Amino acid sequence: MSVPLAPSNEDSRLAALADYEILYTNPEKSFDSITLLASQICNVPIAMIVFVDRDQQCFKSTHGLPQELKDVKATPRDVAICAYTILSADLLEISDLTRDERFKHNPHVTGFPFLRFYAGVPLTTAEGMNVGSLCVLDYQPKALNEKQRHALSNLSRIVISLMNARRDLAEANLFEQVFQNSSNEIYLFDSHSKCIYTNQWYLKNLSERDVNFLDVDLNRLFPDIATDEMKAMLDSLFAKEKSMIFCETIRKREDGSEYFVDVRLQVNFSKRIPILIVVVNDVTNRKIAEQKVEIALEPNHENSQFLAAVGHEMRTPLTGLISMSSMLYNTSLTPEQKDYVRMIHHSSEHLLTIVNNILDLSRIEAGLIKLEKSDFDLHSLIAEMVEKFAAKAHAKNLTLWADIDSTTPRWVNGDYLRIQQILNNLMSNAIKFTEEGKICLSAKLEKNYPESTVVVFKVKDNGVGLSPNIQKDLFSTGENPKYDGSGFALATTKQLVELMGGEIFVKSQSGIGSEFCFSICFDKCDEPHTGDLFINVNLPHIQGAKILCVEASEINKRNIQLPLVSWQMFCDFAKNSHEAMHKLKEAIFNEHPYKLVLIDERMTQASGLDLVIEIRKNEKLKKMPIVLMTQLGLPVSELTLNALEVTSTLTKPISLSKLREVVFSALIPHVLTDKPFAKTKQTIPPMASILIAENDDISKELLLRILFRLGCNRADIANNGLEAVTMAKAKLYDIILMDCEMPGMNGYEATKMIRSFQKQRGQYTPVVAVTANVFDGDREKCLSCGMSDYVPKPIDVPVLSGIIEKWLKKTDRSA
Fold first, then answer.
1. Phi, psi of 214 (to 5 degrees)
2. Backbone phi, psi, residue 365, to 5°
3. What are the counts of helices (DSSP H) followed by strands (DSSP E) for the chain?
4. How far apart are CA 611 and CA 369, in angstroms?
5. Cα(128)–Cα(16) distance, rounded to whole angstroms?
């Protein structure tokens, strides 16, 4: 294709572009919001903000680019369609790129991503310099309507306004802290109180009106602040008598309802012009929470609503951390990085357990808690608990293991999460108050009835022990924070145990250790016909496989031998390199060789690497699979591992899931074993139209990533209930994922409004609650307001996938 001519003012144009210092800069939310809106208004998959430099076009913001192009920051100017846009005074629109002589041979048209439609508006400075373009693209021919063209032009002027404000504020290094805080309202005024920018443009209907910041008046923004008071504040700021002013006021929404806001006023004295920065933060939820705290502190007052609000605020960031670590685990990580991610995940879950303890204790005392029963694998639960606390125990040089008596039933019916919570509390305390020695979690059948069974659990440690005085009130609320840590965990544990028909007590001596013992009555259930939990591959390949473990520690031997035997393998041990080489050679001589060698990297007489070198020198052992067991925090370099052809590494403390993963992979390399966090299957049609209503940034990003992994290529975002209603009115979505607690209008109110106008239109969009509200009755509350389904946080990806798939299959969305 031919290269477009440069504008006649090219040198001045490039100088103007350079003055903005915006090329090759990091992504910024303000610009990303514009491309998102441009894509939504024009109903196209791709929108971009592009700046045309001398030799190439640089991407400042992109929305909807194919995954293969996500990391592309610039393209040559001679293939840039936007290079033609800067030659134009107005919108450049090409309905079908394959029919335009200028672009039909463009490599982005003839090849991937096979573009067909383009519409771009030049980004024109006040001096008339076209520095770039705001453009939208599609994979099929189309044409914009007049409203869409008008809106695109309006958006281009907003980009220029944002660039001007960005340039002025950059001198004071205020841009990051002002504009990147997209959850607040932001207004910029000059010294004459003229509004020069606001990030509230997205609330206006840009297809029907021009952009006009002049109607944004300080007195109209804050009618509760007297005019004289506002003038006095501004005078003190511009006179540099004060650097910043904070105030609180009440504002009204369009429907007349009042809400509370914090207002921050600050003047930036840049080299160009002084700029008044006004940041408005909606603090209505905080005010409500404060009021609830005051009410909750009154004697004998029902405080369940207050607990729900507190629980939501604490659980939301925690569930985001848990879910994000789950997704991170399934990316391309080194074995060491996977161990770190696993520990982050487990630590986050532990913190969530502490939060749940505090909330649960109050709910139990108020009689608001209900038990949930389901069939589960008790042996697996115990193994997971040991794995979860292995890193903490190892960090204190403690020995940690599980002892499951052969009489203990494997499959039981009970409240899985509550049993997990109890064990979490007891294991956490055992590790916290044990400085040396060992900790054992055991389970044994106590009584067996026709319809139920009683299992006794024990958590035994060699810790500081407890005096008789402490033991007397150990399970009372807050009586022993020095032992319990928070004063809530053991009190909650006792209440939960008793709710499940059991009892709990402690045996302890100061300086010797403690043994917490509790019983639980489970209902009986039939064991699923799925075979052993750990066997999910072709059994003949591993049954009877001989494995040699070079390990001196007796507890590590036990932790390795028990699962290997349960997987129907034969495990032999060697204490050092000499004994290991003797056993390996002897096995070959007897024509019954080992299939795999596990080697402790830090042996006493010689390092594990020395043994690996010796094994590789032997012609008959050159191809022997080797797993090197390393210490947490002391990894071996990948160059060394590759040079010695080490098959895999296993970090101590050894977890069951990791042991299974490396052993199965080494014996049957082509079989993919299960991971601790299951990978997702793509179950959503790529073009499914999904709206996410969520105000928490981490939760938004999490849902977008989950949907992408499930196969969804596009999803729209609403930051609160009002935006969700507005967007649902403008577009009929296939499904809406709705958070319940959002500023302004919450998810319950938004759902009711959506149901109201859709009923008039004869429409029905499934609304699925995705919420941290997990108290008893929260699910029913969601369904009663018109929501279609309910997914609690932390998000279980298979559950969310199944619910979305179920509702997408319901093709008839008429009311």
1. -65, -25
2. -65, -30
3. 26, 28
4. 57
5. 10
